[in-house]
Design a protein that fits this description.
mainly beta, extended, 193 residues, single chain, five-stranded antiparallel sheet, 13 strands, 1 helix, 12% helix
Length: 193
């Protein structure tokens, strides 16, 4: 075959290969499923998986002030177990003007722990003190982390660890006891003078 014919066959084979590969990749996604609908702004969605194969979904919603009710911040939670999602549960309501950040960590049993950043740079934490976080009554009310912070992270391992920066340029590490009180607090970094 002339060189032009070889090149034509090569390009045709590559086109068929990449066209089939793209079609196979596109067909692996299912159609989007609407999990929740609201008349208000929904923000900070977080999706985590645990070692049991469950998916944990959290998000925040701010309801505006009306003549009947003040503005309220809500945190919602859903779980996908097997092939079905639970219904949304408003696990925490607060008087925060807004929820700027929402951090979540799961322990080895899939129990969620939250760190919530509100307006005016205040952080709060909460967790489900019973294994079923889908019961709103099983959540510890939001508790304040002392001082004003810029951002934070929460991690559950051998203990519950919170890490956050403050407005004075310091980074703090706190360890939480099982009863929800602070076990220790330590400044681990600061801005030089």
């Amino acid at each position: 075959l002339p060189k032009l014919g070889l090149w034509s066959i090569l390009f045709f084979c590559l086109w068929v290969y990449f066209d089939n590969t793209a079609s196979a990749q596109e067909s692996t996604w299912n159609s989007p499923v609407q999990l929740y609908s609201s008349d208000y702004i929904v923000n900070n969605p977080i999706l985590l998986s645990d070692k049991f194969g469950r998916l944990h979904l959290f998000w925040a919603e701010i309801t505006p002030e009306t003549n009947e009710a003040p503005q309220q911040s809500l945190i919602y939670y859903m779980v996908r177990d097997q092939d079905a999602w639970s219904g949304p549960v408003d696990i925490l309501a607060s008087d925060l003007d807004s929820i700027n950040t929402l951090q979540v960590s799961l322990d080895e049993f899939g129990q969620p722990f939250l760190l919530v950043g509100g307006s005016n740079n205040y952080l709060f934490y909460s967790y489900a003190f019973q294994p079923d976080g889908l019961n709103a009554q099983s959540w510890l009310p939001l508790r304040s982390v002392s001082g004003r912070q810029t951002a934070g992270e929460i991690l559950v391992g051998d203990a519950i660890h919170m890490l956050y920066g403050d407005l004075e340029g310091q980074i703090h590490h706190q360890i939480l006891r099982e009863d929800g009180t602070i076990k220790s607090s330590q400044i681990i970094a600061w801005l030089p003078d």
